Amino acid sequence: MILALPKGRILEDITSLLPRANIHPEDAFYDENSRQLRFTTNMPDVDIIRVRAFDVATFVAFGVAHLGIVGLDVLMEFDYPEIYVPLDLNVGRCRIVVAEPHTVARSDDPIHWSHVRVATKYPRLTQRHFVQRGVQVECIKLNGAVELATSLGLCERIVDLVSTGRTLKNNGLTEVEKIADVSSRLIINRAAWKTMPQAIAPLISQFEKATTAAKP
Q1: What gap in Å lies between CA 91 and CA 71, rounded to an integer?
Q2: What is the pLDDT of residue 32?
Q3: CATH H-level, domain 2-92+183-214: superfamily
Q4: Topology of domain 94-182, per CATH?
Q5: Minimal CA–CA distance to 137: which of 98, 174, 109, 107?
Q6: 10, 41, 55, 102: most buried, per Cβ within 10 A?
Q7: 59, 51 Cβ separation under 8 angstroms
Q8: What is the predicted pLDDT for the residue at 216?
């Protein structure tokens, strides 16, 4: 079986969770300079792949990875029906927000919005949110440096993932609306779950115990 893990901000939290789930990757997994992408573990039938967060969901949805760990933000953006989500791992906590420049936020009220132009790497999620609010939205897809969009005149608002809010503040932005709280979830390919329940169920149990052990 293959377990897909995301690169980036939540990998450290996930790395601390793995030993509690009795999953111990080979040493190369912890080598920041290694270009290796697939790793063995102490479990002879489980390998780990390390890919971009958005790709975790895609690999699991298409069944090339049987399980994965990914943030709720990614699941909300793609909404793959092929993915089963049995467990909130309670790590990687953050939030998806709408933000705008401090100067705009002083006199702006989201309640009065009728049309917005937004830069984001979450166009589907953003579109659904504003449609539900009855607000017309134009989404500009960016893959990074979303905070620059307002200062360069691309748009007045962004939708992005926020943890401490420091990056927003450093770029002159204010959080004006929260779309959703986010944490990391264990995800499973539905077809794999149907055909390999005896192999997958113990892994779900291991992660459940690890998550319970991590709670204060």
Answers
A1: 9
A2: 77
A3: Periplasmic binding protein-like II (3.40.190.10)
A4: D-Maltodextrin-Binding Protein; domain 2 (3.40.190)
A5: 98
A6: 10
A7: yes
A8: 53
